[in-house]
Design goal:
43% helix; 7-stranded parallel beta sheet; alpha/beta; 6-stranded parallel beta sheet; 395 residues
Length: 395
């Protein structure tokens, strides 16, 4: 099967959607599909090799196709949409089109089915809800106006009705989509994934001298909850922490560093800043406890399938996470993690203290997390997507 995957992003991209796109396309190609990944050129100079940046092998039929990008953002967007539509309609170009870009999907869905290949859309959230809350979720972002929210909802409704296959990233999102737009046959829930090292082995946490190490890895947007983690660390003595991530062009790293200083944590908390995707696993492996302190929000509660969640499972460390529906689809309190109320620093501090005081509990949770990881590899994700793509082609 020849798959055209459209992602209007500069590539490679440091953010989670860049990693998810690269890993998904590579895993589909590893199943024998010819995948054309259509992106914008890298803005770094010299341009980076995406295979090297994401540490992807080159032995699969994955081709990165770059759409020229120049001019202001609206012009770049228009050029990309025209290129996507042209490529999708070119005879023999693709057996199926796959994208997580609502604008691309809505544009292609305007074309009658007999003139285009099947379309499969992967939703990462109700667009109008995400747009409405954007200013509270991402530093410096602007919330979508009511008019734009209505436009986003109309696009989503069109794609819901006309796409030949539809993927939701969480079961909670699938329920919200059906609540908003009605039942839809063939709706699939496909979570994100992780790459497992062939040489990985389980090492019990807290089996060393020195202060226990708490690790958070990921972006530092307010909805990620790192503020709550810092507040919790201030309540528990004897713990060191490492915060892995933070884009240098965004204000969150400075905001959180200042907060750590104000809380008197500067000698216990280390901020690494941005690290290459391939280097994150080493930081997680160094942890005794990995924390996912997501705040209560629409994205956190229902629309996220965090890459770092699956990387934490793969690392085989004890996990403390916010008790939110999207995370609880993978984590079970007391079985493979401790789940605490979101935005509750005291509860998070108590969970961290409990694990440190009870190494046997930390060991048991870490082992269960380690054993759960193989169900969430990128290969498993591609297997699930493969069924959706093949069903769309048969329609």
């Amino acid at each position: 099967m020849r798959i055209a995957y459209f992602a209007d992003i500069r590539f490679p991209l440091e953010r989670a959607n860049g990693i998810q796109t690269a890993e998904t396309c590579h895993a589909l190609a590893a199943r024998g599909h010819a995948v054309d990944l259509v992106v914008r050129p890298d803005t770094a100079r010299p341009a980076r090799d995406p295979f090297a940046y994401y540490a992807l092998t080159r032995d699969v039929p994955l081709t990165v196709v770059r759409v020229p990008a120049a001019g202001p953002a609206p012009v770049r967007r228009a050029r990309y949409l025209l290129a996507a539509l042209s490529a999708a309609m070119r005879p023999g170009q693709a057996d199926v089109v796959f994208t997580r870009d609502l604008g691309v999907a809505a544009w292609i869905a305007l074309v009658p089915r007999r003139w285009r290949p099947p379309l499969v859309y992967e939703s990462h959230g109700l667009a109008a809800v995400v747009g409405r809350d954007l200013d509270a979720l991402v530093s410096g972002a602007r919330a979508a106006s009511p008019r734009k929210q209505r436009r986003l909802q109309a696009r989503e409704r069109r794609v819901w009705a006309r796409a030949d296959g539809y993927v939701a990233i969480t079961a909670a999102l699938a329920r919200d989509l059906e609540s908003a737009f009605g039942p839809r046959p063939g709706l699939a829930v496909v979570p994100d994934g992780v790459r497992l090292s062939p040489s990985r082995r389980f090492v019990p946490p807290l089996d060393h001298d020195g202060a226990p190490l708490i690790v958070y890895a990921g972006h530092l947007y307010p909805w990620k909850g790192v503020d709550t983690l810092l507040d919790a660390l201030a309540l528990v003595s004897g713990l060191d922490a490492r915060i892995v991530g933070g884009h240098p062009a965004e204000p969150d790293l400075g905001r959180l560093t200042a907060r750590a200083d104000a809380l008197g944590l500067s000698d216990r908390v280390r901020f690494t800043g941005h690290v290459a995707p391939g280097d994150v696993a080493a930081h997680l492996a160094a942890a005794d406890v990995i924390v996912l302190p997501n705040s209560q929000s629409a994205i956190s509660a229902r629309y996220t399938s965090p890459l770092k969640l699956f990387e934490a499972l793969a690392a085989g460390r004890a996990i403390v996470a916010s008790h939110l529906p999207a995370l609880a689809e993978v984590l079970t309190d007391g079985q493979n993690a401790l789940l605490v109320a979101p935005d509750d620093a005291a509860a998070l501090a108590a969970a961290l203290a409990r694990l440190v005081a009870d190494p046997s509990l930390a060991h048991r949770l870490a082992r269960a997390a380690y054993d759960a990881a193989p169900a969430y590899t990128w290969a498993k994700r591609a297997e699930r997507l493969d069924a959706v793509l093949r069903a769309a082609v048969r329609t």
